[in-house]
UniProtKB/TrEMBL annotation:
<dbReference type="InterPro" id="IPR004429">
    <property type="entry name" value="Isopropylmalate_DH"/>
</dbReference>
<comment type="subunit">
    <text>Homodimer.</text>
</comment>
<feature type="binding site">
    <location>
        <begin position="282"/>
        <end position="294"/>
    </location>
    <ligand>
        <name>NAD(+)</name>
    </ligand>
</feature>
<keyword id="KW-0028">Amino-acid biosynthesis</keyword>
<comment type="similarity">
    <text>Belongs to the isocitrate and isopropylmalate dehydrogenases family. LeuB type 1 subfamily.</text>
</comment>
<feature type="domain" description="Isopropylmalate dehydrogenase-like">
    <location>
        <begin position="2"/>
        <end position="353"/>
    </location>
</feature>
<feature type="binding site">
    <location>
        <position position="133"/>
    </location>
    <ligand>
        <name>substrate</name>
    </ligand>
</feature>
<feature type="site" description="Important for catalysis">
    <location>
        <position position="140"/>
    </location>
</feature>
<dbReference type="InterPro" id="IPR024084">
    <property type="entry name" value="IsoPropMal-DH-like_dom"/>
</dbReference>
<keyword id="KW-0963">Cytoplasm</keyword>
<dbReference type="Pfam" id="PF00180">
    <property type="entry name" value="Iso_dh"/>
</dbReference>
<feature type="binding site">
    <location>
        <position position="224"/>
    </location>
    <ligand>
        <name>Mg(2+)</name>
    </ligand>
</feature>
<feature type="binding site">
    <location>
        <position position="224"/>
    </location>
    <ligand>
        <name>substrate</name>
    </ligand>
</feature>
<keyword id="KW-0100">Branched-chain amino acid biosynthesis</keyword>
<keyword id="KW-0464">Manganese</keyword>
<feature type="binding site">
    <location>
        <position position="248"/>
    </location>
    <ligand>
        <name>Mg(2+)</name>
    </ligand>
</feature>
<dbReference type="GO" id="GO:0003862">
    <property type="term" value="F:3-isopropylmalate dehydrogenase activity"/>
</dbReference>
């Protein structure tokens, strides 16, 4: 498997380093064919090349089968880099150009982390759902967009929320196929009560599910209510499918259930067999460079890579089990530690997962 690694900014390089160690372990011990190329992304490119996106890197991105991405974003960047340059080197450009429309964000609360969750155990125990976020349309991509100056000299910022029937239908199909492999239940989330694009989303979701997936149960839910239900009763969800903006917000809310955004992995895929794997969190400038970031979102993204791109479901399950066991054994980064628990560094968590992998390999 040819893997392009883009560690990016902030904690991105720290967490991707641990995910890479794990993938190299699978290459060494389980016969994973792995060919890694690493390139800069974000501020590092600006500093080294004077552009956020060298042509050579972009060519590699377009041709990649799988990308392991860290994170992008720094506050300095907003100030010093012209907006045209920022667009060239943005994560949104990559998602759009590769047509990575299906962003899969699994949220599973392990018993070992019940203490880290802000929810009561009787509410959160066993929560296990997936958010399928549409990733290439909606508010982040609609036109017109921009900031214009009005005749009175004040400015107006404009972003447009737009969805075609085709963009909605393919997201719903993806969610229904996912649900078939799980508990067969899809919650389609929109704001059909106030947005025309939301009403269309609801209509198309209903039609596609009814006509093409009669074995899947579909419910509709308004996005504001969904935010409440994720905190009130997360176990009621199996697959949530929603648009780009709501999916961004609701998946961070899902991260809160686990106590930290650092736990959440994601995969973004297109219909041409390309995929981008990244933790859900951003560059976390508040903790970057300290060696304290939780690498499990990145490591669990590597498990998704083993399952979907490498087509090695047994290795993916083995890695997920190694993570469960490391947590069961009490290994904690600061973000998920309860008072009194022993805290390890980013690489310490990587060590614990590798140790569990070695034990599992010996047991096999
Ligand atoms: N996919 C991406 O590359 C994303 C990039 N961003 C960018 O990241 C920058 C920072 O944004 P924020 O709103 O602060 O979001 P963030 O996700 O970077 O951080 C939110 C909170 O979660 C914590 N956190 C995040 N990852 C963690 C980890 N691995 N371990 C422990 N704690 C972790 C941070 O310390 C912070 O308190 C911005 O420039 C934003 O645009 C934000 C989200 C996603
Ligand atoms: C560029 C942003 C939309 C990234 C983000 O917040 C995310 O993907 O969750
Ligand atoms: Mg987000």
């Amino acid at each position: 498997m040819k893997l392009l690694v883009l560690p990016g900014d902030g904690v991105g390089p720290e967490v991707t380093a641990q995910a890479l160690r794990v993938l190299h372990w699978f290459a060494e011990h389980r016969g994973l064919a792995l060919e890694v190329t690493e390139r800069g992304f974000g501020l590092v490119n600006w500093q080294r090349h004077g552009t956020l996106m060298p042509d050579e890197t972009w060519d590699r991105i377009e041709a990649a089968e799988a990308i392991l991405f860290g994170a992008i974003g720094s506050l300095d960047q907003q100030a010093v880099i012209p907006s045209e340059e920022r667009r060239k080197g943005s994560l949104l450009r990559m998602r759009k150009a590769l047509d990575l429309y299906a962003n899969i964000r699994p949220i599973r609360l392990l018993d070992a982390l019940l203490e880290a969750s802000p929810l009561k155990p009787r509410v959160a125990k066993g929560a296990d759902f997936v958010i399928l976020r549409e990733l290439t349309a909606g508010m982040y991509f609609g036109t017109p967009r921009g900031v214009e100056t009005l005749p009175d000299g004040t400015r107006r910022g404009v972003n447009t929320h737009s969805y075609t029937e085709g963009e909605i239908a393919r997201a719903i199909r993806f969610a229904c196929r996912l649900a078939r492999e799980r508990r067969g239940h899809v919650t389609s989330v929109d704001k059909a009560n106030v947005m025309e694009a939301g009403a269309l989303w609801r209509e198309v979701a209903g039609r596609v599910a009814r006509e093409e997936f009669p074995d899947v149960t579909l419910e509709h839910m308004l996005a504001d209510n969904c935010a409440i239900q994720i905190a009130r009763d997360p176990r009621r969800f199996d697959v949530i499918v929603t648009d780009n903006l709501f999916g961004d917000l609701l998946s961070d809310a899902g991260g809160a259930i686990l106590g930290s955004l650092g736990m959440l992995p994601s995969a973004s895929v297109n219909d041409r067999g390309q995929a981008l794997y990244e933790p859900v969190h951003g560059s976390a400038p508040d903790i970057a460079g300290k060696g304290v970031a939780n690498p499990l979102g990145a490591i669990l993204s590597a498990a998704l890579l083993l399952r979907w791109t490498a087509k090695r479901p047994e290795d993916a399950a083995m890695l997920e089990l190694a993570v469960d066991r490391a947590l069961d054994g009490g290994t904690r980064t600061a973000d998920i530690a309860a008072p009194g628990e022993r805290v390890v560094s980013t690489s310490g968590m990587g060590d614990a997962v590798l140790h569990e992998l070695s034990l599992l390999q010996r047991e096999a």
